[in-house]
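Why Zinc ribbon domain-containing protein? Reviewers of the renewal asked for a concrete example.
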Amino acid sequence: MTYCSKCGSKIESSNEFCPNCGMKVNQTSNKNRNKEKMEGTFERVKSVTDKINTTEIINIFKNSTLSPVSGGKEFVAKTQKTPAIVIMIMLTCLQGILGIWRVNQIVSSVSTIFTNFYRNLSSLAVLFGESSSSYNMDTSTINSMNTAIDKFKYMNTIPYGKIFFGNCELYLVGLLVLFISIYLGISFFSEVKCTAFMVFKAVLISTLPILFCEIISIIFSYFSLNLGIIFVILGVVISITTLVIISKETFQINANLCVLIISIASVISLIAFIIAFSYHTVDVVKAIVYRYGSLLN
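Here is what the prediction returned.
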């Protein structure tokens, strides 16, 4: 859609003359304006990409993974806005990929999970003095159950897109709630003046150990579910400890107050994460059931 240079009326791109005043459309001028807009957009994108230093980002990941505290303090002190935003986008996408990986792991081992569940029920029955025969399954029952599960996995399509974006949303919810809680806590209960961007960088880089340990957790979960859970807990402990040390030394906050603020903020963030996770899980389950029902019909 273009406009007449004489009367300002709207002119369809296919028209050579203005329908209102009859003036000939200057097609060359329109093409030049479009070309200038495209060139301007390209220059803006190029100016942003020029600010992204790949080597710097790689060093940030390496230092903050191998040395969470010292690498995190360096990140908070030196990193500018553009690299920080790139790091946030990369960590968000990483969480989305890990969510897909975790779901695939659960789906691929769901038969084993059900079998172990009934075996544990049998062990608990014996522990409480009840007969385990009520919970034992013969070979034919296990085979029938595994056949039904395999049929479900074969017929159903996992909504990878919903899982990816849902996990990205979970990460951003936890990150933003933690940032807001800590920033408000420092602003209200401490006399130290710090910028919101500095607090955001401290919170952002402290989430890296959780994601790193989550990768290790998924790998070890193929061998032992309990070992995978241990690595998740380890990642949370490392991240919270890192955040406390970085906040205390960077913002010069009293140690007791720093622990109190971050502990409360972590609990609030965990509650928000659980609420968001429950909604996300329900949506994914509904999508799977709907697709499975559509296939059956």
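The chain has two domains: 2-50, 70-111+139-296. This is the kind of structural detail the renewal will allow us to pursue systematically.
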